[in-house]
Amino acid sequence: MKFIWDEPKRISNIDKHGLDFALTHLVFESDTFTFEDNRIVYNERRFITLGLLEGTPVVVVHRNRR
């Protein structure tokens, strides 16, 4: 799986939450629970994944690109 992100959003996420998108791949290297994010109608399929990042529970919202 390849991960890409918007760099300004990555910097903002580090500032706001202390979490770096560059470490996201580590979440998917262990057990996760993923479900479709259907809280509102998006113009794409979005997913929410619950997992651990270095032992800390995290939520990753993502989409699959083809």
Automatic annotation (TrEMBL):
One Pfam short name:
BrnT_toxin
Alphabetized InterPro entries for the sequence: BrnT_sf, BrnT_toxin
Its protein name is BrnT family toxin
